[in-house]
Amino acid sequence: MIVSPFTVIGGALAGLGLVVTARGILPGRPDLKDVLARMDASRLENLEPARHTAPAATPLEKAGAALLRSVGEGTLRLSRQELELVGRSPAAHLGRKIALALYGLLLPMVCVTLAAVVGFPLPFAIPAVVSLGLAVVFWFAPDLQLKQQAVEAKEDFRYAIKAYLRLVQLERAADAAPTQALKRAADVGDGWVFTKIRDTITRAELEGISPWEGLKRLSVELDVPELGAPADIIAIAGEEGAAVGDSLGAQARSLSGALVTAAKTAANKASEKMVMPVAVLVMLMTVYVGYPALARIMAS
Q1: Cα separation of 280 and 291, whole Å?
Q2: Alpha helices (H) in 127-244, listed in sequence order
Q3: pTM of the full structure
Q4: Which range has highest mean pLDDT (29-38, 104-113, 120-129)?
Q5: Backbone dihedral region of 241: left (phi > 0), alpha (psi from -120 to 50 degrees) or beta?
């Protein structure tokens, strides 16, 4: 017996509705990670509550926020580090995952319906497992995209840190105090990295800690060690009064050399990937040009 995909999808949606209803009736068990995060007063969301308590702007963000409240961030295993790097909220990311999963679930059914409407019905039935498989694939697609965007954001962060080191070095050369040098250098730039640094310094002031400690924590949260090293250098200047201008310059030159090396490595990898397509193209052109002449020779 062949089961219609519409029947399977309808049953799946009905089961999902029952699960959501039971979830809303029964008391939920709080996620330990979320509870500890709310108790941690050093987290940015507790210092900026409007950022997280504001109503979602789009229906997708509302759907993602509802799923986040009902399931919990720990269960969904969202990468907060990558989301912070790309500047995306967990609700927006979940909303995108939900939309793509529904798209993958309904895509085969839409294709079958359109083919029947235009007068070319498909001679075979699309199993419901295809819809479920596409839904799973599209559910994880935003995670792969997020990883790639996080890698690119880290690269942008390193380039901005190089400029930030130079600016701090100039401020220190102008006899600015360590705290003033960090704040003035961050006020110069208008990119998202400099905005992140300014927010970190402001948060450190609200918490009553030194700015370099805040930058050190930011480097750990975002996994960008290039920001942790200059924070240690500035800490020496702030705590011991040492002259660190030359050390900042050396750190900037070292980071610049590392970025150039990484760019050359990426360029070499891209060139190596093009070797095989170019070789295949040359072989095809050789056969295309040489075969007629070879055929005439063999015929004569």
Answers
A1: 16
A2: 128-173, 178-188, 192-207, 211-222, 225-240
A3: 0.62
A4: 104-113
A5: left
